[in-house]
Amino acid sequence: MENNEHNKKYDDLFTPLEKEILALIIKAKVLNDLTEIKNKYLSKKGEFSILMNKIREVDDKKAFGEAFNFARKKLESAFNEKVEEFKRLALNEELQKDSLDITLPGNNFKSGAMNPFYKVKREIEDIFVGMGYTVENGPEVDSDKYVFELLNIPKDHPARDMQDTLYIDDNLLLRSHTSSVQAHVMEKANGKPIKIICPGKTFRRDDDDMTHSHQFAQVEGLVIDKDINLGNLKATLELFAKKMFAKDAKIRFRSSYFPFTEPSVEVDVSCFNCKGKGCSVCKGSGWIEILGAGMVHPNVLKMSGYDPEVYSGYAFGIGIERVAMLRYGIDDIRRFYQSDVKFIKEFNKKVED
Ligand code: DAH
Fold first, then answer.
1. What is the pLDDT of residues 12-32, one digit of tens each?
2. What is the CA(317)–ligand 1 centre distance, in A?
3. Predicted TM-score (pTM) of this structure
């Protein structure tokens, strides 16, 4: 049935109440007003709905029904429209509250940067962990036994002079190298094979200048097993040099002396700056000294319970600041410890492979 095509015979019966309700709907201010209108007039027992009961009293029931339905539909659509209007208003209000002005300048989050020292430390760790090493720790304050004795440096040994350090009493001292961890690890391993690195702080009674600091850091490496030879050491350090400095880096061994290794070597890396031609970085030689290493001295093995006839091993000690200085062209070791934000920010950029 089309709205405007109904029989209008009984329209007047409904018009007064219809007008009253429509006026109330229009006046409604909040959703609750509509609920009240619905309860009072439009619900099943509402004043409007019960007008339908009058159908019993009329002759033309069809015309009555049409008139009732016509009025009911009008009221329903006015009512629903008002409900929709309130919903729209509520939504707008909500949107207004949560509105986001995308033209406003954003908050500038300042991100920090990692000190290049830690970058390099982590890189060294990653390189060796990638080769199957585990990372160990050892005490920074240690006894004479671990820092010297068990490393084949007895009390009267002149090599002690090279590492003048800071004593706490006659026996306790700040470790002058991470080599002290070798003896701790061997003690713990109790005769079993070892493959570790130990990064950590070291201390010496040095005058602080551009290349020396009373505190610096090393990464100690120690491998002990059957059939370990100097070739293994060289291959390992060459891989390290390639990953740390340049893909085509080469290394060379120069014979040296450390009391805890025999033979001992000083390890140079080919200059990654001039590729060996000679420049200011390598002081014209084409080579840069990067670390000390060697085959673990039989005395050291013996003192820590390894039979040198069965076991052999190699060890190395890398200066972390030295590697970082070379890697980034930093000329003063003190820069690592000064917490100068401007300096540290320089290293925000990703380190290239
Ligand atoms: N401990 C030495 C130093 O501080 C560095 C070193 C040299 C460590 C040779 C080693 C090594 O493990 O085999 O000067």
1. 989 999 999 999 999 999 999
2. 4
3. 0.70
